[in-house]
Design a protein that fits this description.
CATH topology of the largest domain: Fumarase C, Chain A, domain 2
Distance between the termini: 112 Å
Strand content: 5-15%
Radius of gyration: 31 Å
Helix content: 55-70%
Largest sheet: 2 strands, antiparallel
Oligomer: single chain
Number of domains: 3
Shape: elongated
Number of helices: 18
CATH class of the largest domain: Mainly Alpha
Strand order of the largest sheet: 1-2
CATH superfamily of the largest domain: Fumarase/aspartase (Central domain)
Order of helices and strands: EEHHHHHHEEHEHEHHEHHEHHHHHH
CATH architecture of the largest domain: Up-down Bundle
Number of strands: 8
Length: 477
């Protein structure tokens, strides 16, 4: 038995592996695009299966595809959704424009499997044809953007809980560290005291706000142009097909999906992908910032800040014994760099549409889905293997809280900015503490010094003491 079979498409005969469920057009794509060795994301394959099942169900209801044939297509498409035939999707992620090759890969796999279900042989298409039946009333130009949007929604559903958990972990650390005083820093210089817990609470809020913005940015993914066919006019579709197909797709995918206000808009514009990619970039930027902070705060152990301890996960040097590196924050930054790069690729692709179609959709799908995937995996590790295990060096934090020259800021309402600045200069020049200098100058009573220069009091808004009220009472004639 030959390892190859011959199939014919509109260009002629093509040799296809005999046991392959894909066909001639997919085989041509494999030869034409040996670019990266990377294959379509599982969510995109599943989404294509969902679109094909929804279309078959709608076409069966409308009587344009007979029931027996449509049922076989539905069964085959469901098997694709379930992951049974993912190995048959062999087109490289970098391929011809619009995703025609990937779309035909889906049509051929489903057609071959449907024929097999009906008793036929692979590659014969006697009962179910990839174009005439699986693709009835459809075009790559409405199927691929629909599948891309649904795939992105499915992928985002795996990212949202990871973001929620990371925000919650930071909030938990904030509560645990609330009692720990430290020095704040601005411009990488000493600033006024704050609570370590306040620092971590802000990290958690940044993640939560990023998640909420991503949810909002993904809203227009739910507006689908399925039924637009070739140029958004609905040619070769039943008048009721569009609404029925999208209703079926919503049920199959478990996503809230609606027909686009204008099918031409849904085909011409992929701004929704740019919106999602931009929101992912925003999360990546915050992760870079936070991971850099954690690296700084844990720097040391003897010559850095050493305010926190990160979990020790692996030896950090091939030559320096005992060295432990902040490996997960380093990972977090590098993955985030990739997400930013992916966003640049998406931006270029989204602006590259001409007239009735943007053919750069494969690049959008690949980059957005990769960003979601690597962010989900990285943030899970960031949460579980880094943030959850952070502990505080309370002694070092307290030392910095008491040592920062910006303690003098609390003196402003009582002795004025200029006198407070003089105290700071003297402290820097002599090494004496702010408290000792304020005491030596007899500017305030011992009770006032103890209260005013208490770092804990500086971490929240406070009513001014009587000394400040006396200094700032209204001038009378």
């Amino acid at each position: 038995m030959s390892d190859l079979r011959k199939e014919k498409d509109s260009l002629g005969f093509v040799e296809v592996p005999s046991k392959a469920y894909y066909g001639a057009q997919t085989a041509r794509a494999v030869e034409n695009y040996p670019i990266s060795g990377m294959r379509a994301h599982p969510h995109l394959i599943r989404a294509l299966g969902m679109v094909k099942r929804a279309a078959a169900e709608a076409n069966k209801e409308l009587g344009v595809v007979d029931g027996k044939r449509a049922d076989a297509i539905v069964q085959a498409a469901q098997e694709v959704i379930d992951g049974k035939w993912h190995g048959e999707f062999v087109v490289d992620v970098f391929q011809a424009g619009a995703g025609v090759s990937m779309h035909m890969n889906a049509n051929e796999v489903i057609a071959n499997r449907a024929n097999e279900i009906l008793g036929g042989k692979l590659g014969e298409y006697a009962q179910v044809h990839p174009n005439d039946h699986v693709n009835y009333g459809q075009s790559t130009n409405d199927v691929y953007p629909t599948a891309m949007r649904v795939a992105t929604l499915l992928a985002l559903d795996t990212l949202y809980p990871v973001l929620e958990q990371l925000a919650a972990t930071f909030a938990e650390k904030a509560r645990a560290f609330h009692h720990i005083m430290k020095s704040g820093r601005t411009h990488m210089q000493d600033a006024v005291p704050m609570r370590l817990g306040q620092e971590f609470a802000a990290y958690g809020l940044a993640i939560e706000k990023g998640r909420k913005f991503l949810v909002m940015a993904s809203g227009t993914l739910r507006e689908l142009g399925l039924g637009g066919s070739a140029v958004g006019t609905g040619i070769n579709t039943h008048p009721d097909y569009r609404l029925k197909a999208i209703a079926h797709l919503a049920r199959i995918s478990g996503q809230k999906l609606v027909p686009a206000e204008d099918m031409r808009w849904a085909m011409q514009s992929n701004a929704c992908m740019a919106d999602v990619s931009s929101a992912l970039r925003g999360i990546a930027l915050e992760i870079i910032r936070i991971s850099n902070d954690l690296r700084l705060l844990s720097s040391g152990p003897n010559t850095g800040f050493a305010e926190i301890f990160l979990p020790s996960l692996q030896p950090g040097s091939s030559i320096m014994p005992g060295k432990i590196n902040p490996v997960i924050p380093e990972l977090a930054a590098m993955v985030s760099f990739q997400v930013i790069g992916n966003d640049a690729a998406v931006a270029y692709a989204v602006q590259a549409g001409q007239l009735e179609l943007n053919v750069m959709m494969p690049a959008m799908a690949f980059n957005v889905l990769q960003s979601i995937n690597i962010l989900s995996n990285m943030l899970r590790q960031f949460d579980q293997r880094c943030v959850r295990g952070i502990t505080a060096n309370e002694q070092r934090c307290q030392l910095y809280a008491q040592s920062t020259v910006s303690l003098a800021t609390a003196l402003n309402p009582y002795i004025g900015y200029a006198k407070a600045a003089d105290i700071v200069k003297e402290s820097v020049a002599t090494g004496k503490s702010i408290i000792d200098i304020a005491r030596a100058k007899n500017l305030l009573s011992e009770e006032e010094i103890a209260e005013i220069l208490d770092p804990v009091r500086m971490t929240e808004p406070q009513y001014p003491l009587e000394a400040a009220k006396e200094r700032d009472k209204p001038v009378t004639a």
